[in-house]
């Protein structure tokens, strides 16, 4: 075992802060690296030491593994935590870190490499009794053969990038007439996004739920799971709302999915924190999808229902310590929901928005957690993912967690950019979400942009009248304040919309 005394966080924003806070609790010093665009970011000030490693584009800063390792050598850093995104699932970087004598707080390069390819991951998992979606076992290159296999599998089918993620290099094909066009698009996007145009074919599950299992494994062969997360509310195949546990599966299914997740981890000798993803069909059958060899964006909901600090466990595992938690020690307590607060305009096809956070006031109170990396007055840069924060609520049950989330969204005040908060409140109040009768097609099935546009316009007129009346009373006591009774007429996000329109 090797004790870690100083960690460099090879990331930015909210996840960098999240890791540094746990490190501080463990009396471990931290180093932040940052691009010129992030010079004033909170994670830079929070760290014990901070080094600028390049210009704003990530290819010149956060993706420069050589510069990051040099900083470690210069500052006598023991370990690197990659967070998620950037270099977190880069097997080559993990090898470089280990080669430099630095601890990589994550899995082995070999495990990253195997699970980084969806095809290799399926081949590894096939050693165990794990249900798989019907599809090809190797990359498809021959068009005629590909069409033959598609006919055998049965349309609709899904063409997927082998090295893909985040919905890139993925195309649904409803019939053979569209096959060539969608194949070309999938290959092109896979090549552009990942430098690897390899694709394979799977049966397309038309109304799936996206369920994932959190696992932890140590370097002594011990692996446990920390139950599931429901991640079916998505836009462009990317998650927007997650919760734990899922109301879509029985306890028997939960136990079986947990067993399968542990077996997937065993198939590649996995250690560290990881997530095994499954899809659930309308009949309740589940199938292995892929494994993410890193900490997930949505990890807080698991922490809330289990009481386990996943970052702390990752550090212990990296030091070589055996897991102190047994499967029998774990149980689900309460319910947690996370919404991702993106700088995106849901009323305009979720297009990213950039600008300055003129107003930025976070919600607070019992059962409310905000993981963020921004402050009022900061700019939302165009160079990185548009996520501003993660808003998490915890309750004794799902209903209470949803009630807290609705209240927290109303209290979250952001102006200067459009955000996904209005959409997230729409979801919280939608009968399909409340009842659990939803799948990954929620946005296309239940959401129309004009639902938000019309509501914003209508309430903007009401709020304009309220503010005008308030200004007219400027000379009276309490001038400039909206009364409690007036404030009940509209939520705070509608007030922010007025400011923005």
Quick rundown:
With 501 residues, this protein is an alpha+beta fold.
The secondary structure category is alpha+beta
Which strand order spans the largest sheet, edge to edge or round the barrel?
Answer: 13-12-9-10-11-14-21-19
The global form is globular
Q: What is the percent of helical residues?
A: 25-40%
Termini, distance in Å?
58 Å
Secondary structure: number of strands: 22
- Integer-rounded radius of gyration: 23 Å
Multimeric organization: single chain
In DSSP terms (H or I, runs of 4 or more residues), the helix count works out at: 18
Portion of residues in beta strands equals: 15-25%
**Main beta sheet, described?**
8 strands, antiparallel
Task: Flag low-confidence runs.
Answer: 478-501
Mean pLDDT value: 90
């Amino acid at each position: 075992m090797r004790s870690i005394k100083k960690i460099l966080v090879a990331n930015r924003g909210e996840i960098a802060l999240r890791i540094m806070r746990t490190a501080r609790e463990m009396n471990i010093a931290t180093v932040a690296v940052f691009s010129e665009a992030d010079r004033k970011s909170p994670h830079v000030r929070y760290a014990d030491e901070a080094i600028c490693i390049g210009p704003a584009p990530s290819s010149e800063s956060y993706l420069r593994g050589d510069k990051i390792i040099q900083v470690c050598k210069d500052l006598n850093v023991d370990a690197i935590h990659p967070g998620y995104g950037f270099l977190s699932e880069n097997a080559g970087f993990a090898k470089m870190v280990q080669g430099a004598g630095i601890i990589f707080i994550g899995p082995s390069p070999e495990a990253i490499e195997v699970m980084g390819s969806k095809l290799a991951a399926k081949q590894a998992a096939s050693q165990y009794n794990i249900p798989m979606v019907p599809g090809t076992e190797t990359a498809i290159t021959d068009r005629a053969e590909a069409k033959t296999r598609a006919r055998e599998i049965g349309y609709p089918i899904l063409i997927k990038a082998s090295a893909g993620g985040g919905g890139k290099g993925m195309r649904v094909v409803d019939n053979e007439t569209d096959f060539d066009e969608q194949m070309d698009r999938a290959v092109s996007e896979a090549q552009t996004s990942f430098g690897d145009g390899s694709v394979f074919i799977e049966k397309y599950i038309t109304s799936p739920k996206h369920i994932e299992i959190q696992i932890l494994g140590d370097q002594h062969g011990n692996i446990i799971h920390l139950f599931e997360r429901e991640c079916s509310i998505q836009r462009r195949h990317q998650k927007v709302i997650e919760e734990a546990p899922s109301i879509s599966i029985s306890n028997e299914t939960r136990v079986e999915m947990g067993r399968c997740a542990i077996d997937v981890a065993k198939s590649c000798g996995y250690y560290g924190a990881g997530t095994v993803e499954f899809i659930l069909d309308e009949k309740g059958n589940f199938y292995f999808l892929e494994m993410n060899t890193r900490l997930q964006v949505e990890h807080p909901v698991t922490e809330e229902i289990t009481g386990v600090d996943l970052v702390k466990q990752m550090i212990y595992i990296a030091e070589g310590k055996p897991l102190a938690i047994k499967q029998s020690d774990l149980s689900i307590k309460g319910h947690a929901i996370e919404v991702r607060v993106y700088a995106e305009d849901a009323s305009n096809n979720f297009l990213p928005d950039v600008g300055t956070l003129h107003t930025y006031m976070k919600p607070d109170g019992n059962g409310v957690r905000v993981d963020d990396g921004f402050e009022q007055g900061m700019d939302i840069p165009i160079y990185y993912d548009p996520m501003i924060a993660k808003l998490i609520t915890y309750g004794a049950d799902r209903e209470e967690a949803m009630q807290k989330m609705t209240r927290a969204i109303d209290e979250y005040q952001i102006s200067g950019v459009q955000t996904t908060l209005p959409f997230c409140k729409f979801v919280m109040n939608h009968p399909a979400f409340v009842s659990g009768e939803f799948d990954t097609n929620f946005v296309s099935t239940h959401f129309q942009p004009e639902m938000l546009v019309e509501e914003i316009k209508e309430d903007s007129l009401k709020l304009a009248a309220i503010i005008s009346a308030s200004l007219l009373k400027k000379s009276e006591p309490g001038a400039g304040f909206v009364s409690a009774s007036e404030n009940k007429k509209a939520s705070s996000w509608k007030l922010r919309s007025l400011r923005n329109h």
